[in-house]
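Sequence design from tokenized structure. All designs in this work follow the same two-part layout: the structure record, then the generated sequence. An example of the structure record is given first.
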């Protein structure tokens, strides 16, 4: 069942004070942890917990993951036949979407994609990969599909308490350790038209792993309704404005002129798929243009007969506007439970100098959820610091690698809360200093939100973010951490080379050129291990004249022929 944001809140708004004895009760174990969301972040947390439990044999944790859909995979699990606005789709994925990063960028340590997988695979391959991870690492028993968390309320104070979750699930649901017994392949267990029951469960710690691509941000463009109310005089057709979350394919835009607003990956994809298109961007996009695209300045406003831009220009032949304008960070079940306040007008402010410290709730203004220490741990005064962790709000690092680092950070602090300042003032002061540092370089944290910053001008913001989480633990003498990089560091060396914006752009450009010449199939053949794929990535970087650990490019930046053996990649002059 799909709902709009107001409906998500209205349907449970009367249940903020949850009845203690309503529904089905469960016994609280010594340490109960709930993960909400079955995408990359949630699966990453389960994987880290499994590895931590193997390391710490006396770890007495009961961990469960709730996913409201009928399969794991998060946004990579495509929803066919998306609903019309304002009903929110289950996923922002569209039919022809390919990753814009090479698939090793989206993998777990030593667990590569299957041999022969296209380096930039279609989205279904990402979904298959996530399912294979859950199966291979035996994570299925912790997953509860079609369990929709509608409210999470903290019962307690800033030092102790528990989470009270309200969950809707199919009334025919059967508790089982067999993952496949309640998969979408077995409809007699969970029929599509099943009625639902409400249960209540208590947990010590809550992991929010719902992702950041669910609640569209459309912006405020004056005159929108006036423009929509009139037909296009040139094409005599009806007009349409919708966010890219509702985009499925180019069919609705045949014989129409569209305006795509935005310069990110989705905007670039859509401009390539739609035949007649303008693109409005706020700054130079890092993605190469495709097709016959007319670049425009930032969208300003609408009038009855025209779409206007900030440089004073306007267009009168536009039929449809696709807003690839990003997403807001909303967590409805926290909002309903009174644990997160959504207020578009809220701004960050320094409070650590005030005595006694004022109440500091967890808030979201859309782009920015605050206060999150290192974008992960809540410092809200409503509950203890280790009660709530949020994964995958940081932009735009490699999803799996970053979620793993955040999960390592969270699990070690859950295991030993004494590692965190009990009064949170020291950590909050560090967050305030970080926000002030952003302001000093011209960035407003309330607008830039959780975008990672390249402080060292070395394009290592993604790796440095992961490293900062592990360093926090190392500084507090946490041992047995997975340090796989040089010089006793966390991030693997190949990721430091590849997980940078210049490397990703160069690799993508070179691969697409080779693909257009029909030369990529041979490069995929025989690559099975992680090392084989890393070799290919380094080879593609070598084509652009960068350092060449495994390849030799005789003429960088010029057309080249690439031949691949089982474990080799050689660049030669054509």
């Amino acid at each position: 069942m799909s709902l709009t944001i107001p409906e998500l809140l209205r349907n449970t708004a009367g249940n903020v004070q949850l009845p203690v004895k309503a529904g089905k009760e469960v016994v609280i174990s010594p340490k109960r942890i709930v993960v909400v969301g079955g995408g990359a972040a949630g699966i990453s947390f389960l994987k880290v917990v499994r590895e931590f439990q193997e390391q710490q044999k006396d770890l007495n944790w009961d961990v469960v993951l709730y996913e409201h859909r009928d399969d794991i995979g998060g946004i990579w699990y495509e929803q066919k036949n998306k609903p019309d606005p304002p009903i929110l789709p289950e996923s922002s994925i569209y039919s022809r979407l390919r990753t814009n990063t090479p698939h090793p960028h989206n993998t777990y340590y030593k667990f590569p994609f299957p041999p022969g997988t296209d380096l930039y695979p279609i989205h279904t391959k990402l979904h298959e990969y996530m399912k294979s991870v859950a199966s291979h690492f035996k994570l299925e028993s912790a997953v509860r599909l079609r369990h929709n968390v509608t409210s999470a309320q903290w019962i307690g104070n800033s030092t102790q308490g528990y989470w009270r979750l309200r969950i809707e699930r199919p009334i025919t649901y059967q508790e089982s350790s067999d993952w496949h017994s309640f998969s979408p392949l077995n409809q007699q267990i969970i029929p599509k038209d099943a009625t639902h029951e409400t249960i209540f469960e208590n947990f010590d710690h809550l992991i929010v792993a719902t992702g950041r691509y669910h609640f569209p941000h459309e912006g405020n463009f004056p005159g929108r309704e006036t423009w929509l109310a009139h037909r296009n005089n040139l094409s005599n057709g009806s007009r349409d404005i919708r966010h890219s979350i509702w985009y499925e394919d180019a069919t609705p835009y045949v014989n129409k002129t569209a305006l795509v607003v935005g310069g990110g990956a989705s905007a670039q994809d859509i401009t390539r798929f739609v035949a007649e298109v303008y693109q409005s961007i706020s700054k130079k996009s890092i993605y190469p243009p495709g097709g016959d695209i007319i670049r425009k300045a930032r969208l300003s406003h609408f009038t009855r007969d025209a779409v206007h831009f900030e440089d004073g220009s306007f267009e009168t032949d536009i039929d449809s506007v696709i807003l690839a304008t990003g997403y807001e960070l909303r967590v409805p079940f926290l909002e309903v439970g009174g644990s997160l306040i959504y207020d578009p007008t809220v701004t960050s402010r320094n409070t650590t100098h005030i005595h006694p410290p004022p109440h500091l709730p967890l808030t979201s203004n859309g782009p920015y959820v605050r206060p999150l220490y290192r974008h992960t741990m809540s410092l809200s005064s409503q509950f203890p610091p280790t009660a709530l962790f949020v994964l995958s709000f940081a932009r735009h690092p490699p999803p799996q690698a970053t979620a793993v680092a955040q999960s390592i950070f969270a699990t070690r602090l859950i295991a030993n809360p004494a590692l965190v300042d009990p009064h949170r003032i020291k950590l909050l002061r560090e967050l305030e200093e970080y926000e002030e540092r952003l302001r000093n370089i011209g960035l407003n944290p309330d607008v830039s939100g959780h975008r990672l910053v390249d402080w060292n001008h070395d394009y290592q913001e993604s790796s440095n973010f992961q490293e900062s989480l592990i360093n926090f633990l190392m500084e507090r003498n946490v041992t047995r951490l997975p340090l796989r990089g040089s010089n006793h560091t966390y991030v693997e060396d190949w990721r430091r080379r590849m997980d940078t914006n210049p490397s990703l752009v160069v690799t993508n450009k070179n691969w697409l050129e080779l693909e257009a010449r029909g030369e990529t199939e041979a490069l995929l053949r025989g690559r099975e291990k992680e090392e084989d794929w890393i070799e290919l990535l380094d080879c593609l970087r070598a084509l652009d004249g960068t350092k060449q650990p495994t390849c030799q490019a005789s003429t960088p930046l010029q057309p080249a022929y690439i031949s691949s053996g089982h474990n080799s990649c050689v660049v030669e002059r054509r």
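The mean pLDDT is 86. We note this feature because it recurs in several other targets discussed in the main text.
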